[in-house]
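Lab notebook, bench 4. We co-purified these components, and the gel suggests they stay together. Before we commit to crystallization screens, I want a quick structural picture of the whole thing.
Request: model the full complex, all chains together.
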Amino acid sequence: MLAPRKRRKEARPAELLEAALGLFVEKGFTATRLEDVAARAGVSKGTLYLYFENKDALFKAVIQEGIIPVIAENEAIAARHTGCSFALLEILLDNWWSKIGQTAFAGIPKLMVAEARNFPDLARFYYEHVISRGRGLVGFALRRGMESGEFRSMDVETTIDVIIAPILMLLIWRYSMSCCQNSESDPQLYLRIHMDLLRQGLRKTENETQV
Amino acid sequence: MLAPRKRRKEARPAELLEAALGLFVEKGFTATRLEDVAARAGVSKGTLYLYFENKDALFKAVIQEGIIPVIAENEAIAARHTGCSFALLEILLDNWWSKIGQTAFAGIPKLMVAEARNFPDLARFYYEHVISRGRGLVGFALRRGMESGEFRSMDVETTIDVIIAPILMLLIWRYSMSCCQNSESDPQLYLRIHMDLLRQGLRKTENETQV
Amino acid sequence: MLAPRKRRKEARPAELLEAALGLFVEKGFTATRLEDVAARAGVSKGTLYLYFENKDALFKAVIQEGIIPVIAENEAIAARHTGCSFALLEILLDNWWSKIGQTAFAGIPKLMVAEARNFPDLARFYYEHVISRGRGLVGFALRRGMESGEFRSMDVETTIDVIIAPILMLLIWRYSMSCCQNSESDPQLYLRIHMDLLRQGLRKTENETQV
Amino acid sequence: MLAPRKRRKEARPAELLEAALGLFVEKGFTATRLEDVAARAGVSKGTLYLYFENKDALFKAVIQEGIIPVIAENEAIAARHTGCSFALLEILLDNWWSKIGQTAFAGIPKLMVAEARNFPDLARFYYEHVISRGRGLVGFALRRGMESGEFRSMDVETTIDVIIAPILMLLIWRYSMSCCQNSESDPQLYLRIHMDLLRQGLRKTENETQV
DNA sequence: AATGAATGAGGCTTCATTCAT
DNA sequence: AATGAATGAAGCCTCATTCAT
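Here is the predicted assembly.
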């Protein structure tokens, strides 16, 4: 077991990233003061600059460290799935919900949306490593279902977007306008209705018309 | 023909609002400098304050002049609609798409999402005057369809959110991550698929189970 | 009788001065906005500049027009006084109180005190035409009383200052800190006590010691 | 010997307060630019905000550090005084004169009078912490003297005002109109005459009439 | 003579970043 | 490695002054 001092030093970057994530998610990039990040991580303002070149670098590190592992996990799940395709969509959503939707990472989508224009290279990174792979997962399930005759035929790439949208909005809303709603919305119900509409909406029927 | 001075005077507010909308959407609320708004409208900083009390008021005016009329128009459409309920949803969407989705106002949802937390005042204003009324419209169509037996029974409030989400995401995406996509997405197709999934997803079937 | 339009034009400067006096007294020089002065006088901002070169000039005009006539009146009273000297002091105070203390001019001393440093030439004007002559009046009464044996001998110039101070403070207070007092002070009682202390304080006694 | 950096750090607040006092007294509260305060203390604008939250706080600190201790000291003097009451008044005046009247703090009364209306917050702070306690001191001496039969009976609260007025005016004058006087006035003589008039004016005589 | 739209300098305050210790 | 004092650029907003009508 390492001496506490030593442990401290090695844990610093992670502690700073966690503090930064919390504040970025809570207040947005511009409104987050580095002094507050440092304070939340229990160090001084100057120390932050020993680990991250500047505010932008800190932001990029927060995003990059945050979210990728969950995607990989879902890719493995999809690869070994054997049941029907709609069930796969449900499993992927469940896992994503428990690993992202119910953790601090839930704030990332809103953060990315808000700042993408100001950080184009970061947006590209996020797109390639998170969004693109996430869309790939949904696309895999859709194509699989269409080929097996479970789903009707539709333009896959666009359908992916339509399917993902309510899931992203659920989180984006939570970190933006939700403060204005007096009635708490129920995310479980929201997701259930979304999947419910999809189950029936995707299903292949007798008098199928090509889209 | 009016004297130029006079003509300017009357055109000023509209010119300023247009400049403000453009910059708000492009850079966000905080990052937009009032001096730049003034410059884009071809006047000096101080002039802006002759027409709008402060930055908040300018923002509210942008919303007031640009978005609220469309909401009101849609409310009128809904009130006098006589056909089936799904057709009403389609008409409302069409109108909203041509008046908002295809204009500079399309950037507002992303703007609101990005800044809501830091400007609760503006968020509340937007919620009350836009979101709340927009949800009311969708809710009206849903309830109407459920009562007539056209739609199956679902939790209305939550379904509203699920239905609106893809429409909002379409715009939010356009003003955030879209720069990372190499293939241009087709909003018409996107909206058609959304409505297609909904048409089938909302429909009441033989073996109906309550949700 | 002149036409109203004509009357208006000739009355403008006086109306503007009255409005300016009111606002200067209420808010001080810097905090008074010329737009408010114009509004109170019922004209537009630009009109003000037709009559006064700038804000400084307006301030000087306010002071210069305001207060001199009362001094002249008191000088006449003193010249023809025949009774005892303390009675003269009381008469002068009474007149000053009713002509200045109970009118809008009461705010001038505070105004001069606050701005003297920023308007040295105006301060000099005020000193020569108001303060100096006011001190002369009190000095006249004091010397008269000392010569007649009614008052004990004291350094006249300094005694003048000591006597005038509470009278000025009464007004200065009213236009500055009085807002912080919960109990309304009674100026009549204040002046009576001041004169009471003076009556006994100035009187020549048996065992007189030179000061 | 302390490192220079460290020494500076500890000296900063006092240096800033001194610079602020000087400029406040010289130019007034509004006309004093924080940048000038910082420059006079030899630091940059931003540094000032490390020590004082804003302009108001800086002002309050000036009062807090400079004037309130003298009030407290005088309260202690009054509490342990055993001689006659007029002597107490003289001692209090002497102490106040040497600690305030002969220092840069002498400019504060004029400053307060000039700015009270526009900064009710500051006025209230000053009233509660300085004026109110100062009046309490004089009131204490007056009541003490009336009870012992040394002074005649008068309305105490109003008499306090009358007594304090010349002392305040002495300072107010020095920081306002004094520049217009060619003959330098002698504050020592002024205060002596004031106390002389008071000594005789307050004294209880044979044929006492209630006021 | 009168208007009021337009200007732009100026001050308070915030905060990312630097650097001496 | 760590600190935190110091810096100064940047933005909102006010208002005296100008000037075309």
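Residues 33-35, 45-46, 49, 54-55 of chain C lie near DNA strand F (CB under 10 Å from a C1'). Worth comparing against the SEC data before the next meeting. The CA atoms of residues 15 and 42 of chain C lie 9 Å apart.
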